[in-house]
Amino acid sequence: MAKKEHAYADICKAIQAKQFAPVYFLMGEEPYFMDQITDLLLNSVLDEAERDFNQIILYGADTDAAAIINAARRFPMMSARQLVVVREAQLIKDIELLTNYVKNPLQSTVLVINHKYKNLDRRKSLASAVDKAGILFESKKIVDYKMPGFITSLLQPRGLTIDTKGAQMLTDYLGNDLNRLVKELDKLTLILQEKGTKRITPELIESHIGISKEFNNFELMRALIARDVLKANQIVYYFGKDPKNHPLQMTLSVLFNYFSNLLICYYTKDRSETNLMTTLGLKSIYQTKDYLAGLRVFPPMKVFNLIGEIRTADAKSKGFENSAAPDYEILRELIYKILH
Fold first, then answer.
1. N- to C-terminal Cα distance for the chain?
2. What is the DSSP string of 20-48?
3. pLDDT per residue over 64-97, tens digit each?
4. Do 276 and 322 fall within a single domain?
5. Whole-number mean pLDDT of the chain?
6. Residue range of the domain that includes 135
7. Does the structure show a pLDDT above 90 at 260?
8. The domain spanning residue 190 has which CATH number?
């Protein structure tokens, strides 16, 4: 039987509607989504008055499968449900022993298992049992090139907006560390409330987070499209002076995404702004202008070759071909090949 895929938004929507599963097994590399689901359950399953007797929190380092099963099989007191949350479940050595309980869970118990930074082995019986009886959710890292779009979607419920450059600046600086990102967005939200505005600008980010609005991957890409050799090299030099906040892998991801999308543009018959926006999954017409400009600047064979050069740069940065070149030199060589 094929595994069921549970979308984060659908899980949250069901919880908000008080439609609870008897078991939630939350696993994967990205802790943010697991924490959000767990917090939502902690705030939704029980009323505040019911929590003293019906909410149990266990920690993987201090518990085992038997203790979890005993807690889950307990009946609630003066409440329709009880909530059992297991944190750090990846530390439980005999976790597979939960299988028999999960096959026949107590319907008055909501069991939430946080299994962070690694996945449950889907070939074993526990994963199959959870998949049938409850929610098996894999929390995946968001790949770097999708982060600007995710930032935009994260701001929508707050009634806030951000332009493409601002989203890329935050991505460059924070990567795909969602917990850190949310903290910075919380800070920017408070500042916007004080200012009485609802748009996060590059200037606001520069002032309050300390990211340069002139030297970032967004501006590097714009310099390459404009064939501005001086500006591009200034940005590369700036990155080389501060590699911690401007990691090579992030820059390579931005370049690879752009040129891969540009190659798709060449294979697209309808190159209108509207169609390119749909084809590439862009958030706004404004973003298509960089691709239309790229079509005028980079011939198709050049684009094809550059994708290979970016892959080579990535391999060199990881030590392949016995490369000992510093990241700054690898990027500078790559930028030269893009511009010439």
1. 53
2. --SEEEEEES-HHHHHHHHHHHHHHSS-G
3. 999 999 999 999 999 999 999 999 999 999 999 9
4. yes
5. 91
6. 8-139
7. yes
8. 1.10.8.60
